[in-house]
Amino acid sequence: MITIFTGAGASRALRYPTTGEFFTTGKGKQLQQDNVYQNALGYLQKNILDVEDILRLLYPFVALKGSPTGDFIYKHLSGHWLSNVPNFVTRTNSICFDHYGRVPTESEVKQLYMPVLDLCKWQKDSVSIFTTNYDPVTDVIMELAESNNIQSYDGFNRFGTWDSGGYSKVKSSGIGVYRLHGSMSWVEINNGIRNTRDYSRREPGSVEHLIIYPGYKGNPEIEGHSAFRFAHTALRKELGETSAVLIIGFSFRDPHLNDIFHEALTTNQKLRMVVWNPEWPEGSEVGLGELKQEFEPRISHLPHPFGDAKALPVLKELLSI
Length: 321
Known about the structure:
Shape: globular
Number of helices: 12
Number of strands: 10
Structural class: alpha/beta
Strand order of the largest sheet: 3-4-2-1-8-9-10
Radius of gyration: 20 Å
Order of helices and strands: EHHHHHHEHEEEEEHHEHEHEH
Distance between the termini: 10 Å
Largest sheet: 7 strands, parallel
Helix content: 25-40%
């Protein structure tokens, strides 16, 4: 059994910006002129900010708003650039819909994913796709499965209501999709989760979107909504049983997910990890280096862009297929 795990780099092949490209693409470029962005840029001492960097820095401050502490602080900030932080974060989150709400064509998703799915024998075996992306790519993969008479399930029944029990129908064969950080089409209405399958941006306040935005560094298995808890718990369980996990375009900057990978590699001695990324993810906040140091024989790097046909023979060898 092979598990597929995709991060922002996987969707980059379909022209979605990575978190590091957020402020240099589309409407994100407008935010560079904001005094909040400029001050954060100076504080973090970078030339261009990753959206994860700035949201991780600003979210704790925004969270104060509306609390007694926040009311005490914010009333003294009138006219100061810090008073613009909540508005800047709101604008940044809204632009997420502009960047990641676009639906790709079936043909381009098919060209990118079909060789990998065929390699994983998706026609007869069970294949799980875990993703941190909240774009519509996995919806299109499910459409591809349907056109190939392959069962698929992503946690929502035909009415769009959350129903984790439906994953049972893809346990022996089919595609199971697990969105670890939610989706642009997920909303919370009357304390329930609904997948609207609609990726267009809504006016703030009309519904509560269920998305873990870039920069979140909490524990979804404790703090998250039931759908987030279920997906992370399912990842932990599957990595404890699978023989290989193919990780495509993930930055390894999520401490909780890194802990899950570490636990799996520790307890599941047969587990092998293939990191499909043109560049080896590095940096002070990247957890892959520590994993590689401890589990090096079982972690391999596939240094090709996702979708490169020349990578497939190498991938097949790494996965021992």
